[in-house]
């Protein structure tokens, strides 16, 4: 048991010989549509420690992209999944019934921050949850327009991609996408798209833009089905909006009968120190889209919405694997574990400590332009200089590669932001060692450059 490893253990410089073999075959047999940060080839993992195929042990600050909130191979999740695997592996909710999915749905309705009574629709991924949320919004309102935000990431299927706007390469070559989608600026306090003096003003101006320019000049509100938003933008750069923004968006939505759809695919399940990120602002969406951490690493997604938003009639929407019994059993175990171990509180406490140290580090290097986040969803934006705020994208890639070679797994978000999103179970000392390693590598790069 190496669950309490405090530092990485690198025995062969990665990628080692076995890793190189796997990567060569990957290139031969897999469509190369992924943009990978470094050549990690995973062999196994335990909690927050990942082992590669050459025997190196890494400290994980990725959680498999915000999925392994309860840690990898969490024993409670493994046991629940294994026991369900032995009972039955699949029997399609689309045409039949089974209890484990109903038990999970009841649990999700209990914890989701939506108005009750509420209903669940199960999917297999985040993108599919967004698809379901889009269909439910259009169907229940009879309206066709969707307002989404620049910088957003909602997935890659055609409907979800139509809302995604975090990097042009994600859309390049796939148009035409869904019509009737309008993108508006997201209030990004460090780089406010409006000439605002402070974050609150940035939030107000973003809301004013939607009200005055979009609803006032482009689309009558009676044709807008939903505002779809990430409470904290993930892939777009770990961007926390100003405090007035989401409550203001909720008011605007209510005034016009527009549904609020919160994409909590990345922010959900205690990642930000609350079960769901909208709870930081007391906002109650009509629909929340979920996936990633929901089932402790098994594939599952869900949409939870108030009864008035979840009205699609029989035959109107379904998917063969949605609510798979093994994933559902794993999800029940993961959610119970999260509650039992008070992972939300743990994420909040460790997140505050991490933020504090990273903010202090701004006195040690001028390459950190901004540090932000909630819970263990933390972004460290690298800039070439604090005066110009010019994004340091190449430097970001170099820092991440160096951290990888030292045994720390961390990737980027947005243009030049280090994204810190470890398992919420990570050992405190291991986390703080990783944070020091990040600071050291940024400082080293700055020294080499100067
Ligand atoms: C906020 C958000 N929504 C949707 C998705 C899409 O999820 P998936 O990759 O499971 O389709 C992601 C994935 O990163 C995400 O971060």
From TrEMBL:
<keyword id="KW-0808">Transferase</keyword>
<comment type="similarity">
    <text>Belongs to the class-III pyridoxal-phosphate-dependent aminotransferase family.</text>
</comment>
<keyword id="KW-0032">Aminotransferase</keyword>
<dbReference type="InterPro" id="IPR050103">
    <property type="entry name" value="Class-III_PLP-dep_AT"/>
</dbReference>
<dbReference type="InterPro" id="IPR049704">
    <property type="entry name" value="Aminotrans_3_PPA_site"/>
</dbReference>
<dbReference type="InterPro" id="IPR015424">
    <property type="entry name" value="PyrdxlP-dep_Trfase"/>
</dbReference>
<dbReference type="InterPro" id="IPR005814">
    <property type="entry name" value="Aminotrans_3"/>
</dbReference>
<dbReference type="GO" id="GO:0030170">
    <property type="term" value="F:pyridoxal phosphate binding"/>
</dbReference>
<dbReference type="InterPro" id="IPR015421">
    <property type="entry name" value="PyrdxlP-dep_Trfase_major"/>
</dbReference>
<dbReference type="GO" id="GO:0042802">
    <property type="term" value="F:identical protein binding"/>
</dbReference>
<dbReference type="InterPro" id="IPR015422">
    <property type="entry name" value="PyrdxlP-dep_Trfase_small"/>
</dbReference>
<protein>
    <recommendedName>
        <fullName>Ornithine aminotransferase</fullName>
        <ecNumber>2.6.1.13</ecNumber>
    </recommendedName>
</protein>
<keyword id="KW-0663">Pyridoxal phosphate</keyword>
<dbReference type="Pfam" id="PF00202">
    <property type="entry name" value="Aminotran_3"/>
</dbReference>
<dbReference type="GO" id="GO:0004587">
    <property type="term" value="F:ornithine aminotransferase activity"/>
</dbReference>
């Amino acid at each position: 048991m190496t669950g309490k490893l405090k530092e990485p253990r690198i025995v062969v410089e990665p990628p080692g010989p076995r890793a190189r073999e796997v990567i060569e075959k990957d290139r031969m047999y897999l469509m190369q549509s992924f943009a990978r940060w470094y050549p990690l080839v995973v062999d196994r993992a335990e909690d927050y420690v990942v082992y590669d195929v050459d025997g190196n042990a890494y400290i994980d600050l990725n959680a498999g992209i915000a999925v392994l909130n309860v840690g990898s191979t969490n024993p409670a999740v493994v046991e629940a999944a294994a026991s369900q695997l032995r009972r039955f592996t699949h029997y399609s909710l689309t045409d039949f019934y089974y209890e484990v999915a109903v038990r999970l749905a009841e649990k999700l309705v209990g914890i989701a921050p939506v108005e009750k009574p509420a209903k669940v629709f199960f999917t297999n991924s985040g993108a599919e949850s967004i698809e379901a949320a889009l269909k439910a919004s259009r169907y229940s309102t009879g309206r066709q327009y969707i307002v989404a935000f620049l910088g957003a990431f909602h997935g890659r299927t055609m409907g979800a991609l139509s809302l995604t706007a975090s990097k042009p390469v994600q859309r390049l070559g796939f148009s035409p996408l869904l019509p009737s989608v309008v993108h508006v600026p997201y209030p990004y306090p460090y780089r406010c798209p409006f000439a605002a003096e402070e974050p609150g003003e940035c939030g107000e101006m973003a809301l004013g833009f939607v009200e005055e320019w979009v609803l006032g000049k482009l689309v009558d509100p009676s044709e807008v089905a939903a505002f779809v938003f990430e409470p904290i933008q993930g892939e777009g750069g770990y961007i926390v909006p100003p405090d007035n923004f989401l409550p203001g968006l909720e008011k605007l939505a209510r005034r016009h009968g527009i549904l609020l759809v919160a994409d909590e695919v990345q922010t959900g399940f205690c990642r930000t120190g609350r079960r769901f990120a909208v709870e930081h602002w007391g906002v109650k969406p009509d629909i929340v889209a979920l996936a990633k951490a929901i089932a402790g690493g098994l594939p599952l997604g869900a949409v939870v919405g108030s009864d008035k938003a979840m009205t699609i009639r029989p035959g109107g929407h379904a998917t063969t694997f949605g609510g798979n019994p093994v994933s559902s059993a794993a999800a029940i175990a993961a959610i119970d574990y999260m509650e039992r171990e008070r992972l939300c509180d743990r994420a909040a406490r460790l997140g505050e400590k991490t933020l504090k140290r990273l903010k202090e580090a701004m006195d040690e290097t001028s390459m950190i332009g901004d540090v932000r986040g909630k819970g263990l969803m933390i972004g460290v934006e690298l800039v070439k200089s604090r005066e110009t705020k010019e994004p340091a994208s190449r430097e970001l890639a170099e820092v991440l590669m160096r951290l990888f070679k030292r045994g720390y797994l961390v990737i980027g978000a947005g243009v030049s932001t280090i994204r810190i999103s470890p398992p919420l179970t990570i050992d405190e000392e291991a986390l703080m060692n990783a944070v020091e390693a990040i600071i050291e590598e940024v400082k080293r790069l700055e020294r080499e450059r100067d």
